[in-house]
Amino acid sequence: MSEKLHYGAWTTDAVGLPCFDLIVDDRQAPESSFPHLLSTGHVSAQADRWGNVNLFTTEGGFLWLNSPESCFARSSLYMMVEIDGEPVSLLYSELARKEKIRIGTGYVEYIGEAAYRSARLGVVQQVFAMPDCGRAIHGVFTLTNLGAQPQKLRLQIRGDVTPTRAGGGGHEATGQRPCVTQPGCAIFPGFDGLPDGVFLAADSSWHAAAHRITLRLERDIVLAPGETFTVPCATGYGPVKNLAFPSLIEAQRQWNAQLAPYAVDAPETWMKHECLWNAGQLLSFKAYDSSVCEYYLALGGYGWAAFGVREVSETSMVVASADWELAVASLRFVAKTQLASGDIPKIHTMRLDRSSSEFESDNELWFVLAACECAAQTGNTAFLDEVCTYWDDGKGTLWEHLKRAFFWVRDEIGRGSHGLILIRDGDWNDYLSLVGAEGRGESVMNSGMACRAFSVFALLARLRGESDFAAELETYVAEVRAAVARTFDQNWFVGGYTDTGEPIGSFAEDRLFLNAQTWAVLGQCGTPDQRHRAMQQAIEKCHTSIGLMLMSRPYSSPAPEHISWCAIPAGDGENAGIWPQAIYWAVWALAGEGMLDEALDEWKCGTLRNHSRQFPDVPFGIFNGPDCFSSAWAGRREGFTQVQLLNRARFVPMNPMVAWQGFALQKINQAARVKSTPA
């Protein structure tokens, strides 16, 4: 199945996985790099439209092995040829003819032709990650002599190395670094955090060398007319002993097997492909944090360096039914960043002196919700008895970590005068940063989420024989549910209350907050009729052709002084923009209420495929994207993303763009099965 779009076409690769053939003219969207992410689970690579492949890792803290912002380097893995003494670059942007870039799960393939004088070479450069948690990114470079004469070529495999910590500058190009060489392998040893150094390797027929920041492997060949020469190679960090050189088809087969559990039933083929593609993209965010010795799914974008914790909780429940080990590893990651007080950071800084001064009010809720949803989805509960350390002191079972998170929410975050959980420095919507600046503002979203999380927590407590704790949870949920129910204002639940007790998102204000409706419904707050009306109004007031807006209408920019310190423009970001994960939380709620047609319609609107159809000129939102899109309130910037104040396009790709589609479609399917089952 193939579908042509403005910047290329969707198709399938050799193993039947969806892939995208990017065909973009140099003058099309010249400011966009069309980045694509690869990851083994330890080392990651970001590939772009120009043929640059830049390696990085989160092991030991975020580190670019070759920073894309360095002006001294190009790619971590590329090839050059010397023809008649003249060096000719085979990077995709330097080719005489650029055919296409194939973007696939775990790989990128650059296809074109190089030309110099009478020489013409067909060039195929494949770069891929094996799903093996290794520390190497692999390449297979293929050259074909398209000319009428034999060509004597000096080949160079190259890898530029400019190690850069978050916030630091790239390594200068001056000076010659020490290099360790052996047949087929060149190593820059002893970088900070990488004691074994960065390597470039091929088979032993290659001569190893280095110059300034560049590792090199060299070899002379003669290529007859029509003859093809193939070079397998690899780059990465760590020991190189027993390094293998697999083919791309081997990688594709392994990724295909990895993705098989993520397949979701859907009424149309493109929908199945959307879910499978997004699952593969999500797994490209798999990373490793050596400070807690756990794998996790990184937020990506601006979250690579910041180690966003909340989103790790969120995505753990997305992968639970397909990759249980990764889900539990993610939950352990969160548990090990938790303080003994129960407080969980929004951002894991790896600082040992971190205190409980961070006071976002939803991190702990996401942790409990994720663990409980993972258990409920799969029936697995043994993980709750795994022992995890606290970040500052001591250790306890994961169950004990969850209990401390609950007590932190109940006793330290607390509830306000309306009985709702305090919003503190903001719920998931960071934009609402001043609603509770004085410590009295309240959040309906957080309260509804607490009802869902803690009600399942109570069921698990009873299964474990902890009846007293279960009763505590049940009492708390009953009180918060009643408080959320009281916020229903004619047609929907308000968004919350300010420090002065004024509602935000009221009927009189005519401003509906999507997440408040979603989580009040998912938390089973209010009557069935109220929940149904709330979701109907959410669709009526927040629907767009590319998904539901976060708010039915924006605030001014700058924002009212009791709402936010952010001056986000109307229709951008959290100020009535479109957030994929919020769309799919709403789809989850719609499915739970039996509104299956509405759920499926909104599901389709929020997909990458649909965004590309509605806004074909936008150079992201095709095979990945930023964390949000701008809505019609942004005027002619609709379908793009926020660029004022914070340029979100800079942070493509991010995992919220691809994390939730499969999960939400599963919820629709589950609800449909329940609905069709005779009572």
Low-pLDDT stretches: none
Largest sheet: 11 strands, antiparallel
Radius of gyration: 26 Å
Mean pLDDT across all residues, rounded? 95
Helix content, binned percent: 25-40%
Q: What's the total count of β strands?
A: 30
- Number of H/I helices: 15
Give the termini separation: 39 Å
> Strand share of the residues?
15-25%
Tertiary shape: globular
Structural class: alpha+beta
Oligomer: single chain
Describe this structure in words.
The chain is of the alpha+beta class and 679 residues long. It is 29% helix and 22% strand. The chain has 15 helices and 30 strands. It has an 11-stranded antiparallel beta sheet with strand order 1-2-3-10-11-12-13-21-18-17-16, sandwiched between helices. A hairpin with a 2-residue loop joins strand 8 and strand 9. The longest helix has 20 residues, at 444-463. The radius of gyration is 26 Å and the shape is globular. The mean pLDDT is 95.
Question: Helix and strand layout, with pairings?
Answer:
Blueprint: E1 3-5, E2 8-12, E3 18-22, E4 36-39, E5 43-47, E6 53-57, E7 63-64, E8 78-83, E9 86-89, E10 97-104, E11 107-116, E12 119-128, E13 136-145, E14 151-160, E15 164-165, E16 180-182, E17 185-188, E18 198-201, E19 207-211, E20 214-223, E21 228-237, H1 248-259, H2 269-283, E22 286-289, E23 294-297, H3 303-306, H4 310-319, H5 324-337, H6 363-378, E24 387-389, E25 395-397, H7 398-413, E26 442-443, H8 444-463, H9 467-485, E27 488-489, E28 492-493, E29 496-497, E30 503-504, H10 514-522, H11 528-542, H12 580-592, H13 596-605, H14 608-614, H15 661-676
